[in-house]
Specification:
Layout (H helix, E strand, L loop, with lengths): L2 E4 L7 H8 L3 E4 L13 E6 L2 E6 L21 H13 L5 H9 L9 H15 L5 E4 L11 E2 L36 H8 L3 H4 L1
Parallel strand pairs: 1-2, 1-6, 2-5
Antiparallel strand pairs: 3-4
Helix pairs in contact: 3-4, 3-5
Amino acid sequence: MNESILITAYFPPISYFSCIKNSDNIYIEAKESYQRQTIRNRCHIQTANGIQTLSIPIQKSGEKLITSVKIDYSTPWNHKHAHAIRSAYGKTAFFPYYFDELISPLFEKHETLFELNQAILKKCLNILNIHTSLIPTQEYLASHQGLNDLRTDFSKKNPPYISNYNPTPYIQAFSDRYPFVGDLSIIDLIFNVGNEGVLYL
């Protein structure tokens, strides 16, 4: 059985889903310390003005365990993210089919970052028709014997994340003004390719 372990991620990059598709089970690291400025709370999308980073604000506290990190709702970041996604992908072929479903977790007021990310991940897997099991880890281990450990592979601040990942180009929004950018958020693949994105993975 092919099993892998990944960190939690906000609208994860496309390579993240390639790892999921190629695994029978996926463990999501639930016992690590939170790390800022990573895919744990940010993603990258293609806009009319180039690449834009969407970041979830986190409540400041001494809490470091990833499952206890709380989202800061004092500003309407979720509305801003939804607006940015609509502006970037509103004219793509699959936007009308998936926009409402894809952004719905943003307005469910999940208390923690981990809970929100899990809800988003399940939505994306459903759209892509991927049925890999997602299993939160029960303890932190520096190395997981028998698992394909991909946690550090996604610790970079910007794409591309996996060094040996060579994405096949597809038609992106604003391809008339920008060259293809690989390994953006799964949002980019879903709105440009649709549920057939699973074949691209």
